[in-house]
Write a sequence for this structure.
């Protein structure tokens, strides 16, 4: 996997929604204004992954990852959304792949983490901190595990991820990690999860 | 009498009664608060994960970690290996817990 956005239509749509100013309109079924909506749609997403042939236990892992990334949007941006509250969440499948896209128009990792560690100065540093260190963006609350847990699953269980916040990208393909810097800026976060059927 | 006393102080929480998908911080916090009246006299706690399909660190950090902090090694985990997210989440969080846990 290279560092460019995965070439799926919903990835492009999520990216456009996350980066456009003013925000583009979304079909209602792809926009979760509240956490409750996200949670309710997670059920259907998991069932469709199962229907495509994803092993049951792996579908639970997929759901856990989506839950962690999706809930982060609400945990870290409550009261701080730049314009539109909530998240993009949708999925699509073809014969070989099940693809999930999540995105938000929130503060992004750099702004969030600088609240608790002002020495973080770049998107790359913020991204690495989020995926590699147990540092909460809501200290003194006990937080900061979610993306480390996501990473551990990606490396152990073979799901692929493309994640961008600011100009920094973290991707995992076939359990191989890559960190990159892009020109295009995502103010909040965007995540594309992919499962390949064998 | 001792047995009765012990049993009276053992509180078993069947996690599936809270939900089979346990996946957000608000839900974990709400569940923890809801359990407090039932835990008032408990000296030992059993957490039974039979039937749980999804457990995430966000939920567990709000529900299980405070119980670990309160009960230490007086907390027992049951049926933690049937579901992969239960297994991985508890082992992931246990790296930072002050007590070593025997997962069953």
């Amino acid at each position: 996997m290279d560092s460019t956005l995965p070439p799926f239509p919903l990835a492009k749509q999520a990216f456009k929604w996350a980066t456009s100013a003013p925000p583009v309109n979304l079909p209602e079924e792809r926009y979760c204004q509240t956490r409750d909506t996200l949670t309710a749609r997670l059920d259907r997403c998991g069932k469709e992954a199962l229907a495509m042939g994803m092993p049951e236990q792996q579908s639970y892992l997929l759901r856990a990852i989506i839950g962690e990334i999706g809930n982060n949007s609400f945990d870290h941006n409550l009261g701080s959304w730049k314009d539109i509250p909530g998240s993009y969440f949708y999925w699509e499948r073809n014969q070989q792949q099940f693809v999930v896209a999540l995105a938000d128009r929130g503060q992004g990792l750099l702004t969030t983490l600088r609240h608790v560690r002002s020495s973080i100065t770049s998107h790359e540093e913020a991204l690495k901190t989020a995926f590699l260190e147990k540092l909460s963006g809501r200290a003194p609350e006990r937080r900061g595990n979610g993306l480390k847990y996501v990473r551990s699953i990606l490396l152990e269980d073979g799901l692929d991820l493309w994640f961008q916040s600011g100009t920094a990208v973290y991707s995992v393909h076939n359990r191989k990690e890559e960190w990159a810097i892009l020109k295009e800026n995502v103010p909040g976060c965007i995540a594309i999860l992919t499962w390949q059927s064998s | 009498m001792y047995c009765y006393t012990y049993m009276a102080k053992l509180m078993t929480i069947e996690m599936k009664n809270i939900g089979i998908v346990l996946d957000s911080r608000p839900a974990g916090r709400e569940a923890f608060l809801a359990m407090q009246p039932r835990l008032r006299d408990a000296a030992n706690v059993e957490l039974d994960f039979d039937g749980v399909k999804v457990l995430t660190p966000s939920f567990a950090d709000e529900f299980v970690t405070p119980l670990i902090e309160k009960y230490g090694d007086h907390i027992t985990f049951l049926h933690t290996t049937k579901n992969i997210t239960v297994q991985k989440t508890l082992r992931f969080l246990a790296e930072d817990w002050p007590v070593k846990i025997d997962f069953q």
